Structures are given as structure tokens and as C-alpha cells.
Amino acid sequence: MSALLALVPFWYIWRIIHDILEVSPNFSQAGNVTSYGWSAVLFAVISIVVYIAALMCSHMSAFRVAANIRKELMRHITALPLGVTEKYGSGKLRRIVNTSSTATETYLAHRLPDKAGAVATPIGLLFLLLAFDWRLGLLSLVPVVLGFLIMMKMTGKDMEKRMEQYQNALADMSNEAVEYVRGVPVVKTFGQTIFSFKRFKDAIDNYETWVIAYTKGLRLPMMFYTTAINGVFAFLIAGGILFTRGSVTNELLLNLIFYIVITPVIGTTLTKIMFMSEDAMIVGDAINRIDEVLNEKPLSESSVNNIPKNNGITLEHVSYSYDGKKNALNDVSLSIKPGQTVALVGASGGGKTTLANIVTRFFDPQKGRVLIGNTDIRDIPKETLMNKVSFVFQNSRLIKASILENVRMAKPNATREEIAHALEAAQCLDIIEKLPNGIDTVVGTKGVYLSGGEQQRIAIARAILKNAPILILDEATAFADPDNEVRVQQALSALSKGKTVIMIAHRLSSITDADCIYVLQDGEIIESGTHNGLIERNGIFTKMWKNYSEAAEWKILNENKGLEVNA
Question: What pTM did the predictor assign?
Fold first, then answer.
């Protein structure tokens, strides 16, 4: 409606020019010019008001759709296995949730109303162009046809592929940026700035190469397109000269002036259609990316409330691969009795964390099965399983809330006294005493007021409050300084009493008392036994222990040298 109403003022303009040429040079006799002018203004205003009303409707719908997409995506992502979210990366997932849903909002709010206008305007224009002088009207359409053909070439199937490549390059760059920023503390600690920046720089270079090639590829067609849609005046002037044949009539002059006034609308409409085609590709790609996430299957839920008989853990021929090529775990079988403490050791990438994640059902094994108390964990309801298992990661996260609320996450109905007791058992009293509001002190998203070791102790307090019978410790002392490490170890000892414990550790001195140590290499268990038994075997673990002991000696010697220098 708005698009058609916007064409009515052009008819009044034609009437104004007609009346002026009729009475020329006695312009004062053109009595209807003012009324025609106000009528043109009135229809222009009505067109704007209708367009604003249309945009209001489309925006309300678009915002609602975008919000629903984000809600549905977040609901689905929280139900997905951890392995899936790790596969995408936090930067790529965040881009899909935010940017892809925004693309749908832009398309529905702006391009869909413009699409209606892009259909209505050419129909109305075609009537106006052919109504007054069909010859000039056809001439006006020649550059339109040329521009449309060039535009079809620019926005065809090849452009769809390029748009997908563009979005992929953007997603990769976004993902690498997030990972790089997260790793800055480690980069600064080890002075690896140039090497650490390489992946991020490669992503930027790849994006740069693609964008420059894409821009150069469109340079020539865009130049011809712009020339075609803006060259309509050349066709009209040539036609005017041809049609006059030496004599210029008022009617021809009237129509020529009118066509010169109205033809810029053609270029504007074509440009809108071109941007609509581009945005349609963007939103199509965005929907494909949203569907890709939504098509990821969440973990299956058991309808029967199967409760494990005990806290023993068994892995039977478990295999898992992140990329479908190389197995992170390969035919792993082990058995942990209730109340036992076992340790997983080995080089980075050996499969230790993957094994722990399988036990906590952050993702399911692709082959084999995991049992707790002789019950397959896939047959245990999620809430029952989570009540059975506590975990402390090497980089524990604290939310932006008070320490009280951070600890209470483990047990929402816990009393203040229970939380205080858990903090005391986790050796957190010195942390609480130095904070302005004690356990009611609000910490930042990553615990900006606390050191790494202090964050770990708060996380351990959370696990103590939960008091689950199975405990997973993934490098729980990794970021602790010597003083904090002692306190963390004391807290872990209190937490581990009477529980089935799986410890992942690089500090081999912390696992000498484990009931069983499993040595993992390339996703397979190559050795297992007690500390002393493995040392006597003189295998891989013996070599690891020797290297660890030499490193510890070197550290002590260097610390002693430092003391001598200070003295």
C-alpha cells in the first residue's frame, strides 16, 4: 500500500508540469498548481505513515521471532553433550546464537516489507511509464533490463556459495579471537606471544584474502550495474532527440521532463531488490547454521528412575572420537570399586579428561558403555546422575554473585549454616575473613577478586556441600600457588573421605596413596596398578615419576639459590 501510494505524487507532479507548460509563459494563470502540490505532499505523508505502521508490525514480529530463536537455541544447547559444544567452540556458538538470530530479525523487520514494495513499485511504475508516452516508457525500461540481468549474475548460485564461505571465515575469526583472548594470561606467563597469535592471525589473513578476492570479483559487475541503472537519462535524451525530429511539442517536453523525474525511482527499486537478494542469502545461511545446532541430538533421557545400587564405576570397551577420525578413547575397560580412589595420569591429549567426561555423561561413548552401580548411565535420569557425581575442574568458574550463592548452586535449599560449614571444610575461612562482606561478597564472572587457588577452594566447598558419593577431580590444584596448594589438598582430603574418587593429575606426588593408578596414552590404558607396583615394573610410569622428581629437585635447588642470593 505504501509503495503504491508513494507513486501518486508523481502523477500530481505530471499535472503540475502539464499546467505550467499549458499557460507558459503566463505562469500566474496556472491556478491548480498549489492544490496539486499539496495533494502530492498529502499522499507522500500518507505513504510514510502507512510505511511506518507496516514497519511497526514487521519489527514486533521480527523481535519476537529472533527472541524465540535465541531461547530455543539456548534451551537446546544446554541439553547437548559437552562434546558438541566443544566441537563448535564458544565463539562460533555465541555467533550463531547472537548474529544468526539477528540476521533473521533484520530480514523480517526491513527486507520483508521492502520485498512487498519491490513487487508493488515496478507494477505501478510500469503503468505510469507506459501511460503517458509508451515510446519513452520502453526506453526507460532498457537500462532496467540490463541492470536486472547484471544483478542476477551477481546474486546467483555462485553468490550463495560465496556468502557461506564469507560467514565461515567470519565465524572462524570470531572463534579464534575468543580463544586467543581467553588464553592471554597463559601467553603472557610463558612469553609465547608470537606463536600463540599465529592461529588468530591465520584466521584474520584468511578472512582478508577472501574478502579482497570477493570484492575484486564483484568490482566489474557492480560498475556495469551502477552505470546501467544511472544511464537511463542517456536513453531518454537520445530518444527525445530522435522523437522530436527538429520540432519540440509541449506534450513531448512534458513527458520527457516527467520521465526524467520519475526514472530515479527505478534505480532505487532495483538497488533494494539487490540488497534483498543479498540479505535473503545471509538469512538463508543463518537459518542453516541455526538448524545445524538444533539438529544436534541431545543426550537421551531415561523414563524410568533407575537408581544405582552402589557407587562403583565400570567402563566396558569404551571408545570415543571428537572428529570421527582419531579416537580420544580406544576400547577402554576399567573397574573402580565403591570407595576407591583412582588416578588417571599420562601426557596431555592421552584421554584423561575425556574419560572423566564420559563418566559424568557430558557426552556418551560411541562404543561400549559406562555403568555406575551396575546400571548403564544412559538408563539413569539426569538429575539422579548429577546428584551422584561432583566434579572440580582445573579452571573452576564462579558466577557474578555472592560467595554464598556460588556455593549454594550445589544445593539450592542449603541453609546459611550448611554453606558456612562447607566453606570451613574447604579451608576457605581465610578468604572469607579478608572480604568486606564475608560470604555475602559479590565476586566477578571469573572470580576477579580471588586468586586461582582461592577459586578452587570455593569450588571444592561447592562439591562438599553437594556431598555426592562420586567425585571427579580434574587437575584441581593446577592453578594453586604453594600455600594454596597445601590448603586445597587439605580440602580435597576432607572432600574425598568415603567417596569413589577419580583424580586427574600431573603432579604425581599427589596420587602416591591412590588405590590404583591408570596410565593413559593415545586413548588407551597401557599400565595400571599402585604407585609402588608401577615403580617396580619399571615402565612408562617409572619414567614419568623420574622426570617429575628431577623437575621437583631442580625447582628446589633454584629456590635455594635464590635464597642464597637474597641472603
Answer: 0.60
